Amino acid sequence: MIVFWDHPKNNGGSNIFNYIIERRDRTSLQWVRCNKKDVTDVNFKVTGLLVGHEYEFRISAENAAGLSVPSPSSPFYKASDTIFKPGAPGNPRILDTTKSSITLAWNKPVYDGGSDILGYIVETSLPDEDEWTVVTPKDGLKGTSFTIINLKENQEYKINISGFNCEGVGEVASVPELTKAEDKLIHPEISLDAEFRKVINIRACNTLRLFVPIRGRPDPTVKWSRENDEPIGRATIESTSSFTSVIIENVNRFDSGKYILTVENSAGSQTAFVNVRVLDTPGAPQNLKIIAVTKESVSLTWEPPLNDGGTKIKNYVIEKRESTRKAYATVNANCHKTRWTVDQLQEGCNYYFRVIAENEYGIGLPVETTESVKVSEKPLPPGKIILQDVTKNSVTLTWEKPEHDGGSRIVAYVIEMQSKGNDTWMQSMIVKVPEAVVTGLTQGQEYMFRVSARNEKGTSEPRQIGVPVIIKELVIVPAVKLLFSTFSVLAGEDLTVNIPYAARPKATVSWQKDGTPLKQTSRVKFETTSDQLCLVVKEACRDDVGQYSIKLSNNAGETTADIAIVVLDKPGPPRGPVQVDEVTSDSVTFSWKPPEYDGGCTIKNYIVEKRETSTMIVFKDTITADGGQYTLLLTNLAGTKTISYNVKVLDRPAQCEGPLNITGVTAEKCVLSWHPPQYDGGSSVTHYIIERRETSRLAWTVVTNNCTVNMFKVTKLLEGNEYIFRVMAVNRYGISEPLDSAQVIMKNPFVTPGSPHILEVSNITRDSMTVCWAPPDTDGGSEIIGYIIEKKDRSGIRWTRCNRQKVTDVCFRVTCLAEDHEYEFKVSAENAAGLGEPSLPSAYYKAYDPKFKPGPPTHVHVIDTTKSSISITWGKPVHDGGSAIQGYIVEICKAENEEWIMCTPPTGLRVNKFEIHKLIENQEYNIRVCAMNKIGVGELAAIPGTAKPEEKTEGPELSLDSELRKGIVVRAGGSVRINIPFRGRPSPDIGWSKDEAELSDKVLIEKGLNYTQLSIDGCDRNDTGKYTLKLENKSVELKNAVKASEIPLPVGKVTLIDVTKSSVSLAWEKPEHDGGSRITGYLIEMQPKGTDKWGVTTSTKTCDGIVSALTAGQEYSFRVIAYNEKGKSDPTPLAAPVIANDLNIEPSFRLLFNSYNVKSGKDLKIEIPVIGRPKPKIEWMKDGEALKQTTRVTYSNSKPEVTVAKKNFLVGRSLVRNQIQRGAQPGKGSPKFPATDPSQKKACDDTFTNIYL
To answer: With a threshold of 0.70, does the pTM exceed it?
Structure first.
């Protein structure tokens, strides 16, 4: 700004050589010098001003005598540029028309008038009329385009556009020609970007976005499809009148291909396409086949995958796994062909195979054989074929099994025959055992036979019978083929005699022994088969010795055969009597006859024994049966005598008692149990040996050789295999005969569980979620022992296990998630059979802290009103919804209707107060406020009741600083500035006076909107006095010469000092501020329990008080209020209710130190806190005598502490007593107060040695 002034009327007798220019901001109290150099002109350009601020100026002249008094201040001037109305908008043009609308656009005016364009106004008029209608909103448009709606079809219009700023509406710009409201047909067009005309390459797991601008009138319909008119399943398609877009998230190899876009309207149609190539790992190879299987290898072949992932296939990975395992093992990780032979396989095992293609982006999807493949081949031919029998229409054949079954079990044998004179072999029958009876043959015809073995891999080469067979009935005279004529057996052992014979037709057989027919008993049996005679003698004895004759007869004749059976046993006793032939003094000669039975062989010698008067029994080759109790009987003429002996035969234990039970059978284990042997062999069974073998093998495998109980759990068995187990008992003498079990197949009695059902994913935060699911419908027959939870990031391709330990609950908190990533989950149940199928994946859930719309603003209330406005304020919402508050929206409506109008901009307010303008005076309004954050607009909060725009009168009030109340002291020649804020409505008139008289001319009075200032420069003694400020408006007059005040702040912390059955003692801290007026007193209010009313019980002027006349046992609440001449403060309550009861507390000290040191000649003060109820009686003692108070030694018992003060030095003791118990007596552990200086101690007559507390 440029400031002009006139020269002073009087230059003081000296030329003026400088002017001082000063300015003051309306918002400040200080004058600031504007010129640093001397100014001699009567004008000066003031710079460095703030835009929008208001300033006043004053000038001081300077001559040789000094600086003059400043001129009166100028009015306030606002620092702002000069503003004009804006120019006309540029280039108004029509963009589009429909049958009911016209869309136009324009450019900003070249000249904005020096102020920002606030908006634009669009007007329309009919061609023949001069009346213009504003079609834009009342507050104008912010943009430079607009669509005029609700027009008549085929009607022509004139259109004007103008801009406006703070000065008003500027010049008008007209659309050059008349514009008709009509629909325009535009052929649909597709604007395909140049990049879309090429092949679009995109990495897997990324998001594909195809954005294609389109146009057409009317709006064309949009259709996206794949080749062969296949719909796009996973895509999010968005279409508007100007563009269409396709978004496919987490693309994979199956999203590659041609995407066809077709747009169509009544004017025509157009089609375009976009080729997309997803760079991903390849798909699964095709047509995996097994072309050859041997006993140790499998040959595979396959075709390349249909989708190579956008790049060339580098190689294939071949993997295998046994059917009993779950994990695959790599066979070849770098195969460049589409066939491979997997060798070094274990014969007889079942295998699965899979092939995976690999490109530069990694390993793709696998293709797996649908069924397991057994590594085996065709068996070898059967062994020798034997002709067993021929009849007139059948042949009986037998043969040996093949030497090798090809690694797979023989499932059948194929018998083929060929009649003489025919070159064709015909299949006659298929059997599962190595023998067969071929029937339906022609009598007298000659046939050849051959047999082939078959397993799951095929049929072996045939084995042919050695000679042709003529079909006819055979007649054979019975004939016996004796290999031996004599058969021997040890006594007690079993004898089986097999005698081959031939006879056709079947012969009749009869047996004789020593010329008499042989009878069958439980011990002697004979049987006859088609080609063999069998005689079985169990536990042979000497009665079985003799000649046996067999007679066979049929129609062709008869024959006889004789055999002899000898039982090898001890010879019978020699025959007596024993004859004594000669007796001498030292010898006896006697003789006897040979035994009748020589035991089946020649007697080698005789044993002659002698005995005197003793007897003896001898066991040779003892067996288990020899054990037991033996009794010796002695008899003579004098009587009888018996004695018993127990004989124990030490041997290996007997066979364990059966049966050998098998329980708890699963795919890998079972439990065996048995009973101990009835006979332990004379020694305790120390342990058992358990063995197993597969039924397809002959060798036994030891399971354990140190089982000490009658039960054992066998593990590590193969699923599907058939086993036999046996148990043998062991003692110190050997191993028992084995006890065999029945055959058992290892398989689970249950299956894996079903799939759980994911119910919900909740409690989502930025790094964790809670997954809940329902148990599977079936547990597979076994209890579910846990669940496996897996997650997958939308941007990844692998599932990751979430829990390291088994989860038995149906909820799990998944942690360590990446913020803003999306995850899906699946759950698998596990039982004893293994892991079941996983559940279907859940939906994707994003890991982020939950955000919601904010809550309602708090404490919405009206703070001011005028006749055309209402000012409101509010507090922030208690909950911001997890997102920062972006603004507030204020709405208003008249009390008699419900049409709410938004008063604030759509973007909201950043502050928490707002003044609503342009309201109708005395009209009642409803007002409400809501907060908004990034999520949206939150809950509404309304003011209580209604608000009415009306002028309010408010009495004048001023705020006098506490320093001003004390008075102002200033040195002569100094300046005084007294600034006093005030308020009042309407704005009060101010009046200053001094000592009830008018102010002198040197006093400068300033008045602002809410303050007044008294300024005195160059003070002298005449300026001393009492200055009075008077404020007055239409409401009330305020005159205050000394101070202005308000109600005091609440008192500080309220403390319970004492309580009895009828009274309570309280103390409190003074208020932090007395409100500008002295505290005149305090009120103690009381509220008995069970009532809602507070009553004043005590009034006091100090910071403590006693409330009496209480009811014993009653509970009370208390609060304290401070008051001054302006009124009462807010109450401060006691922290907790108090029950009126007498308290008994044993007296005690709270000693901080046990020893106190003081320098001789110095003062000592000791304060000792004391506790006791009733109030203890306190006594001080020194060296066992009562301490007397002097001018140097004083003590006081005030509040809850004891204070002793001693000038120079004091050592003493105190006793505290009450009605409960005496206080501490002098003794050990009492604090001591030694003098610091021994020399000083002697010089002081009243120096003591100790103080006992």
So the answer is: no
